[in-house]
Write the C-alpha cells for this entry.
Amino acid sequence: MNEAILGGILAGGFPPELITATVRRSERAGQLRERHGITVLAESEDAGANRTAAESADVVIIGVKPVGVRAMLEDVAATLRPEAVVVSVAAAVPLELMEAALPAGTQVIRTMPNTPAKLGRGVTALAPGSAATADSVKLVRSLLSGTGRVFEVREDQINAVGSVSGSGPAYAFYLAEAMAKAGADLGLDPELAALLAAETIAGAGAMLAEPEADAAALRKAVTSPNGTTEAAIGVFDARGLPGIIAGGMHAAADRSAEITAGLSAARQP
C-alpha cells in the first residue's frame, strides 16, 4: 500500500527529491531508491531513521500496520515540526489514539486508501483530526490527488469506506478468479479464461468511471430480456449474491471496529 501511494504521489508530479522514505531493511531501501529516485533511509543502518525523516517534513505519512502506529508516532513525536501534518494510512486506528501519542495540537489526518492508487486510479477517503486546518486538509488532498479520487468524510464513516473501497479491489480480484475458474470448467484454456475475466472486469470498471455512469443502468443495458445475461443474473439473485456481498462488507466493517477496540483497550493503563 505504501509503495502504491508513493507511486501515485510521484505520478501526480510531486518532486522525488522532496521525498524521504524509511524502511526496515537496507536491501529494500536500495530497491526503492533505484525504482523511484527518492531518498530512502533504512532502520537496519540507522536506528533513528524515522526521526531523521520526520524532523524536516511538512507532511509525515505513517504507513505501518495498525498495531505499530502508536509506537511509530511516539518515536517521531519529539522531532516533528510544530506545523507538520501527520497522515495515517493504517486501517482501524482512530484519530483519538493518534492525537494522544503526539504533542497537543498536532494536525492529524486519517485516511483510507486502496491499492489502485499505484495506477492513479485509487480512491482515498480522509477524515481530519480536531487540530487539522482547512489548509492542511487541502494540502493533503492535493498531495494524494495523483493517486486518484480523494474524498473527505467523517471519521465514523471510515469503516464503511474501508468495506467498500479499501477492501473492494480484493472483491473484484475474487470475482475475476471465480469467473476464470468457471470459464475453464466450461472448456476454455485456463490462461485464456483468466485473461477474459481480467480484461472484462477492467473494461467494465473503465465504463463505470465515465462521468455520470450508473452501475444499475449499465447492467440493464447488457441484460436483454430472456437472454443469456438475464439467465446468469437470475441465478445470482436466486442464490442471494447481493446479500452475500452485503454480509461480507459488514464483516469487513465489523472487523475494523474490533481492531479499533483492541487498540484502544491496549493503551489503557
